[in-house]
Amino acid sequence: MTLKINTKVEYSSKRAQRELQFKLLKKALNQAYKSKFYKIKFKQAGVTPKNFKRLEDIQKFPLTSKKEFIEHNMDFLACTPEKVIRLIMTGGTTGKPKMLLLSKKDIESYSIPMIRNFIMANLTQKDVAILLINVGLTSGGIMYGIEAPERFEMLPLQVGLMTDPKTTCELMRRLHATTFLAAAPSMIKFTHEVQRLGFNLKKDFSIRHIISGGAGVSPQMRKSLEKIWGAKWYHAYGSCEGGRMSAECKEHDGYHTFPDDLYVETLSPKTGIPVADGEEGVMTFTTLKREAMPLIRYQGLNDVVRMSTKKCACGRTTPRLWVTGRLEERIVLKGFYKLYLYQIDEAFKRFQGINDYQLVIIDKGDKDYITVQVELEKRKRNEKLKQDLQKAILFSCESLARGIKDKAVGEIKVEFVNIGLLPRSSQGKLKTRLLDKRKLKFIT
Ligand SMILES: [Zn+2]
Asked: Which of 82, 177, 352, 371 has the fewest beta carbons closer than 10 A?
């Protein structure tokens, strides 16, 4: 039997949502207080769950950073270890992974927003989903690829990314797969691989829905892939720690949050105070139903988002988010034109052989200039490729293209460098993909 989903909350009044969130937050604070980490953290801040008397009181409670979650990982445990039955994690670039433990109850509550996401994308039990994510220990793999489809009673094919695209295509045709569950970059990569195999993606397959999470996708890329597959693309916004935090409805106008699962705040990066409705702030969330590892005012994603409480054209009243990018991966040119590293990643996805890249920004006169240093084998380099890369970047980064047109930003330059030339850490990871050498930087 399919897990029963109460969709009433998605259409309830603001007042009803606030009342529900107050009740759930109170419980969440009490649950978190059972953990060693929050017992100490609350004490240091001079608060206990008893100080939470109205919704706004949440601001009295301290923020939780990614560093704290990694460094004190096991101290976040708020239930007895016997209750833990699942582990998910993301391997950080620092070598210290973030590990999230889940109890039986947690698996169910973690699955519900994912199932809401399926329903919002018009999936039914008849759909067959191809999972373009390696299952491993990730949230996208285990939870989105196994636990949530199982509770929704939909067939997921966990082909992952390691399977040869030819085999995946054969399975897709044999089972009449209708849906992709993917991260946006792997969806783009897979599409190019299947195109190279000579298929007509629209005619040869029956894909109707592409549901992606994780890294962002530009409207241009999305439209182009929708056309190629003859499918509708629904993007969602999630993380290992927060689960499926929000998802798009058929209007594709922001991501609906799930107020019975997370309490979301958007805080000013400068003052830490909530910003006004619709303004950009740092994504901050509190898990409302987590038993094993509750998170209070978690700011570890470093994402910049806008949140609006205006009712959506689909009829849902739940607050919506628009994700504008990751704080450390955002470049603001001349205080106005914004650029995100994921947009460059996206631009490079259809080119083969690119090892890695770095963006160098300088200011000269009244303009900002960007050079993209691309690691590529000597034999693959040519002028045409350089121009194609430039074009792909401008296609993906609309705001940058506008900046060049407005003559506030200089023409973008692509430079080929030898593989291994860009500075790396001892683990072989690029030290930084963004080298900002400007004297005056804008952080707005
Ligand atoms: Zn909507």
From this structure: 82
Q: Which of 327, 349, 382 is the last residue of a domain?
A: 327
CA of 245 to the centre of ligand 1 (A): 15
Q: Are residues 370 and 302 in the same domain?
A: no
Ligand 1 centre from 321 Cα, in Å? 11
Interatomic CA distance for residues 112 and 147, integer angstroms: 10
- Compute, in angstroms, the gap from residue 35 CA to the centroid of ligand 1: 36
**Residue at 215 is within a domain:** yes
Q: What is the domain range of residue 264? A: 1-327
Radius of gyration of the chain (CA): 22
Dist CA 396 CA 346 (whole Å): 7
pLDDT of residue 52 exceeding 50, the answer is yes
In a domain, 48, yes or no: yes
The 10s digit of each residue's pLDDT in 229-270 is 999 999 999 889 999 999 999 999 999 999 999 999 999 887
Q: Is residue 441 part of a domain?
A: no
Separation in Å, CA 36 to CA 78, 82, 249, 293: 8, 17, 39, 11
Task: Choose the most confident range, by mean pLDDT, from 9-23, 77-91, 185-199, 408-422.
Answer: 9-23
How far, in Å, from the CA of 254 to the mean position of ligand 1? Answer: 8
Q: Give the helix/strand (H/E) hosting 192.
A: helix 184-196
Question: Distance of alpha carbon 33 from its chain centroid, rounded?
Answer: 28
Report pTM. 0.78
Q: How far is the CA of 319 from the centre of ligand 1 (A)?
A: 9
Query: Is 338 found in the same domain as 321?
Result: no
Are 316 and 210 in a shared domain? yes
DSSP class of 412? P
| Domain end among 327, 348, 371 | 327
CA of 311 to the centre of ligand 1 (A): 8
Whole-number Å distance between alpha carbons of 414 and 30:
54
Span 57-68, mean pLDDT?
95
- What separation in Å is there between the alpha carbon of 237 and the centre of ligand 1? 14
